[in-house]
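Task: sequence design from structure.
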């Protein structure tokens, strides 16, 4: 039963709308890049199911993380730790959405896509939230696969298969995840320490974290131009990818300063830029692909 004071906005908050928006965007890119077309209604149902799957992951994450959410300034006002919704109600809510989303996607498109969506939910909730998050500073690296799966889900919903293109896009999102979240961890280090979460800055130190951020930023920059090098994107996208990758590396290098206050300010700037990085990169790929299809009379 919901606790007194819960309203619709609390149940929406359980879905982690900002995270869901990234899931929907990357899945939609995967759908629109696919070389086949579904009926618009099928696509609408598919993307809605994927969004619900992302929301289910968020709700179940909040169920299992309720204790540590209460200790962190960034999360203490979430519906469970704030006392607006009973924890037991969130478990049922998340499980219902998970089953509904996978079932609807399978019936509307194909069961490969549905299976990948189920894997995404399982990976985020069980592998990352329950298992890795509290025991290893590499939680973000290994758990990052959960955030990278949606582009494959979107592609397979359209095609019924997984080919090189979605695998490369999966790799981009996978490599983007560590520098994105470790930048957050650098300027929210105190929060993670209070919750006893072994994020890399708290376990290995800030210097090691900055080195790892730089390494992953270089790998990300290389993977970002892979679509052009592999021939399924043009040079317009490639130039955008080069620019974004170079900027990501510059932001990472700028973290190497002795002043801790300045470093944390720059870590926050890197975190914010990384949000734009993924959106602009995928948007550039999508716009270029759709423009070429339009020019060829394929839309």
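Answer:
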């Amino acid at each position: 039963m919901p606790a007194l004071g819960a309203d619709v906005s609390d149940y929406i908050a359980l879905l982690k709308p900002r995270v869901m928006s990234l899931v929907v965007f990357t899945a939609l890119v995967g759908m629109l890049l696919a070389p086949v077309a579904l009926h618009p209604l099928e696509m609408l149902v598919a993307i809605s199911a994927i969004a619900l799957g992302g929301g289910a992951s968020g709700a179940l994450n909040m169920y299992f993380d309720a204790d540590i959410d209460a200790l962190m300034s960034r999360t203490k006002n979430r519906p469970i730790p704030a006392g607006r919704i009973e924890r037991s109600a969130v478990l049922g809510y998340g499980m219902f959405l998970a089953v509904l989303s996978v079932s609807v996607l399978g019936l509307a498109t194909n069961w490969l896509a549905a299976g990948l969506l189920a894997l995404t939910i399982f990976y985020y909730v069980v592998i990352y939230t329950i298992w890795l998050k509290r025991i290893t500073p590499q939680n973000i690296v290994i758990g990052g696969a959960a955030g990278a799966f949606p582009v494959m889900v979107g592609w397979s919903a359209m095609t019924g298969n997984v080919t090189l293109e979605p695998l490369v896009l999966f790799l981009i999102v996978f490599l983007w995840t560590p520098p994105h979240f470790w930048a957050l961890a650098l300027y929210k280090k105190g929060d993670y320490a209070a919750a006893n979460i072994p994020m890399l800055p708290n376990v290995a130190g800030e210097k090691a974290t900055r080195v790892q951020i730089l390494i992953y930023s270089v790998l990300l920059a290389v993977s970002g131009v892979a679509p052009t090098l592999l021939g399924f994107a043009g040079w317009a996208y490639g130039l955008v990818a080069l620019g974004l990758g170079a900027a990501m590396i510059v932001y990472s290098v700028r973290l190497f300063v002795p002043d801790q206050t300045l470093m944390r300010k720059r870590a926050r700037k890197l975190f914010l830029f990384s949000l734009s990085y993924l959106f602009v990169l995928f948007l550039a790929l999508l716009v270029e692909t759709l423009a070429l299809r339009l020019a060829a009379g394929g839309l």
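The chain has two domains: 1-160, 163-299.
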